[in-house]
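Lecture notes, unit on protein representations.

Consider one protein chain, 324 amino acids long.
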Amino acid sequence: MNKLVSIITDPAIGGTFLSWSLEYLAGHTNSYSTAEKTYLPLVDNPVQEHNSHVFRPNQFCKSRDVIEAIDELSNLPNKHDRKIEVMYMHSVNYYSDKHKDWFISLNAVLDSERPVILVRTPKPYVLYHGLNEKRAFKGMGTGKVSTQEKNINVFFKDAKRTWDELNLTNIYDNREFIALNFRPFDFDEQANLVDTLHNKDNVLNLLAIDVWQNLDNTIYDIMNYIQVDIKSDRYALWLDVYSQWKTLHTKRVMWCWYYDQIIEYILNGYSMDLTRFDLDIYQEATIQHTMMFKYNLNFKTFELNKFTNTKQLHDLLEPNIHSL
């Protein structure tokens, strides 16, 4: 029976890259695809503009697919050049009925008694997902996918209609609308369903930051845990690819690291260059949201199209007039 390794992560934090890394560092030249029912060449570099989805992992949403995949991957013919088979799923099954299907999937993985790698986003990094642009679309996207308009139309349609009727459609009006209506610090409790995994002996628990920024060190713990040696001639090549992929996360992670200091600098009138973070409208709205909801302040944002410096924003502070 083949060694099956299961990867479980919060959505869009690097499960695809980690799946590829395990196979690549194990020395595999191909990867079995449950979708194609055959072995496909393993790419040397899966990284593209926003993610690593040149590589297609064995990723599943529905419990039926998970159960079938466990059986299929576990019973592939033994091949001397293959050390492991890898399957991957997110920690929340958005297609399930109140997540019942997700727990069926989870139990199927745990009952196999095979290695499970769990990667979670801790609450201090909730802002990592707070961007207008997603890194993936349906798990396999290749281009930019704007989420702002979709979210507004789904959750705030009536408020947006009123906003539009008042002809409040400029970028600074849209930013204020988002700041008033979105809740960027709400920690998704649905993504916290797998806390019971922390007590399982066959689970390696990792924080997302160890994948985003420290995987060049963490990968040794992972490979040791799954009892697979890193192929010596692959690590240096993998390290270069990881550096490329890591860059995709750097500004998002910095945004989380520096957020409290950004707010402190605005309140105190200190100067910090915000262009280094390449803020999008959602991130700017998050700053404005904090000013309104935590400090009862707002900015004089008329014709302010871009946040560029904390001193600039301090000089625009005024009392909040919105009823919150």
